[in-house]
Design a protein that fits this description.
The complex is a heterodimer of chains A (259) and B (99).
Chain A lengths: L8 H23 L3 H21 L3 H26 L14 H22 L17 H9 L4 H22 L10 H10 L39 H6 L22
Helix pairs in contact in A: 1-2, 2-3
Chain B lengths: L3 H20 L3 H26 L3 H31 L13
Helix pairs in contact in B: 1-2, 2-3
The chains are: A mainly alpha (259), B mainly alpha (99).
Chain lengths: 259, 99
């Protein structure tokens, strides 16, 4: 007869501290505007889950959760966020009218159904706990199962991993359909197409001798900022500084004699 | 404390993830919500492994992690490919089949 599971006081305290925090972080994930903040909140949820795994005698899974999810997967997410950048899809305005109330109502119904089902369902016996199964160590117990009962799924999963890696490489590989224009062709095209306005290239950012950072648009001869002189990414992110304070009229040009 | 509390927690997290998939428009955030749902399922598996006193649930959770890793790799590659051609990571903009 196996000993029945008793949950000790420290684990109860751990649960009641971390579970609300993880739920708050998960809800915050939906509410924050920037995808980077969502990623950080998700990383926090994953770390709390890793702590829960370790508290539940799943030491190996807890460590793997930290290494694979908060390490590799979230890093991949942040990397792709860096590649894709910020665009309009970050906005929280709903494009399909009435979608949000319907989604929340459905979620309350679905979640309530799940929770009430779990509350009423019984296994017909008390929880056992993993003391016996983990007697020779959690990693050893898992390895025994992986390489005996689950060896075929394990091999299939390895094939899946290789396929996924190959698929990602195929998708990420970019094959040019037309040859890359040479520098000479680019120069010729600049003069032959449309107006000559772009012939000299785009204006550089910054106000000469006043502020030469990349987030300040250059000033055109009539004093208006040149919109093409700054990166579109900076503009979308809202990190552009107004260049009007650096105009000659607005700057104090009186010479003060140094003593 | 009853061990069922872990199951309630994972049910709540799963529901939050499902709402996120429906509500958010950025494809990457939608993907993160899918990850949240997979994690919630993993918590259920680990908890049931403890209830049943066998390690089978943990092995299945391990397989889920591997599948989730594959899914993230391929999914993010698809997002990058769509972004490269359509200059947008919004799931509303990927509507070529509608027209």
């Amino acid at each position: 007869m196996q000993p029945l599971l008793t949950i000790q006081g420290p684990e109860t305290a751990l649960f009641w501290v971390l579970a609300p925090l993880s739920i708050v972080a998960a809800i915050g994930m939906l509410l924050v505007k920037k995808a980077v903040h969502s990623a950080l909140l998700l990383a926090w949820v994953m770390i709390t889950e890793a702590i829960f795994y370790i508290a539940q005698d799943a030491l190996f899974l807890g460590i793997v959760q930290v290494v694979v999810y908060t390490g590799a997967v979230m890093m991949l997410f942040l990397f792709i966020l860096m590649l894709v950048g910020v665009d309009s899809s970050d906005s929280l305005t709903e494009t399909i009218t009435g979608l949000r109330p319907i989604a929340i109502a459905a979620a309350v119904g679905f979640g309530g159904l799940l929770v009430s089902l779990l509350g009423r369902a019984t296994l017909g016996r008390e929880p056992i706990g993993l003391e016996v199964a983990n007697a020779s160590g959690n990693v050893q117990g898992l390895a025994e199962l992986l390489f005996s009962k689950y060896v075929w799924p394990f091999e299939v999963v390895s094939a899946l991993l290789i396929t996924a890696a190959l698929g990602a490489m195929v998708l990420a590989h970019h094959q040019r359909t037309n040859p890359r224009p040479s520098q000479r062709e680019q120069a010729v095209n600049r003069f032959r197409t449309g107006s000559l306005a772009g012939a000299a290239g785009l204006p550089g950012p910054g106000v000469f001798a006043r502020h030469n950072a990349v987030d300040v648009p250059a000033l055109l001869p009539d004093g208006t900022p040149a919109p093409t002189s700054i990166s579109a990414t900076l503009k979308a992110r809202g990190d552009v500084i107004d260049s009007s304070p650096f105009q000659l009229d607005n700057v104090d040009t009186s010479i003060v004699e140094e003593k | 404390m009853s061990i069922n509390n872990y199951l309630y927690l994972s049910a709540i997290l799963f529901t939050i993830g499902a709402v996120g998939v429906v509500v958010r428009r950025n494809a990457i955030v939608v993907f993160m919500c899918v990850e949240l749902m997979l994690n919630a399922a993993n918590l259920t598996l680990v908890t049931f492994s403890r209830i049943n006193g066998t390690l089978d649930g943990q092995v299945v959770a391990f397989f889920t992690m591997v599948v989730a890793a594959c899914e993230v790799v391929v999914g993010l590659a698809i997002i990058v490919t769509i972004y490269r051609s359509r200059r947008s990571a919004s799931i509303d903009d990927a509507s070529l089949l509608k027209r």
